[in-house]
Task: structure prediction
Amino acid sequence: MKINRRLFLGGTAMALTAPWVNRAFAADDITIASIYDLSGGLEIYGQPIDACLDLAVSELNDAGGLLGRKIKVQKYDPQSNIQLYTQFATEAATSLQASAVFGGITSASREAIRPLLGRYQTLYFYSPLYEGGVCDRNTFLTGSTPSQTIGQLMPFAVKNFGKKVYVLAADYNYGQISAKWVRDYTGKSGGEVIAAEFFPLDVTDFSAAIQKIQRDKPDVIYTLLVGGNHMSFFRQWAAAGMAGKIPIVSTSFGGGNEHIVLTPAESDGVMAAFGYFQEIKSPANEAFVKRYHQKFGDNAPYVTEHASATYNAVHHWANGVKKANSLDRMAVIEAIENGSTVAGPGGPSTIDPKTHHCATDVHIGRVKNHSFEILESYPNQPPADTAAVCDLVANPNDNQQYVIQ
Result:
């Protein structure tokens, strides 16, 4: 893949200039809505997601569509603004009457629109990796959760690097809850979290944190920072002469293509665990990446787990529509619950009916020269964290997010 760093530093031509993009739909088209940040600060996450949603829809339409009808996508750009998320979710559910909504990047955006879509009885798919625990029959969540990624990465880190772990995390529910999971899995692996610091997303000065890390001398750093946080920390970490001095592991680094924006001197050696890396060597993934670049060009955004899980989400929805032979919301939900597996680019993605999460393959990769080398893979990991608290078969009216204590 040719890497164009300016694509990520300055935004892409795929970004939309208006917050709401009007589409002309044929009367018999099936309409779905996408609500992803294509501008406003989180576009580095939203642009590859948007591309993979388009790829999945185009594949379905090229194969004849669903129920003999074409699928059209109404795209909304919330510009990283929660108020716009709620406005557009309401619009999609009421005026548009979308058959399904695919949207949300941060957990805050998900929790802003998930209750609205439930109230309006509009089927919802959330695809980014997240902190786990959502239990809602109206929602399907196709990204990885802590038991799948942290549950593999922490035993690997403690075994290979040592027992003293220092956590850096974004200060909102994703970082706060995920840090609890890091502490839990570190303890189960025989290690100890010696410190955990939380940073608002707009923090750019990490000098005090770097000094604390130098003083405490952990064996490994676990970062749950997000987006701009990561850029600032790693640049300052390298400037302090610390690059390569202490192993760094993460389940968020790379989700915003940080490994492409940062230089090799700033990011080489960082290890991450995800349900997908673009570099996975398999016939299915190599064919997927080829189709992706044929459609969007050599300089299309690097495919993240968020993006590949969105591709899977569209196909899970399509599986439900085909099996139900209907767009009726409950018929589609029941059809997906009765069995939906997508042969995704990262491996099979299978919906667990009790949690509406996916069993998925998980991989550990290490950054080298703007790419990830795959170190280890773990097939068919269940969403054990959410399964411990959520059973939608026994309790179909459950509707909350459980949090580890």
Summary: The CA atoms of residues 183 and 193 lie 6 Å apart. The chain has two domains: 5-144+283-290+303-359+383-401, 146-274. Residues 1-24 have pLDDT under 50 and may be disordered.
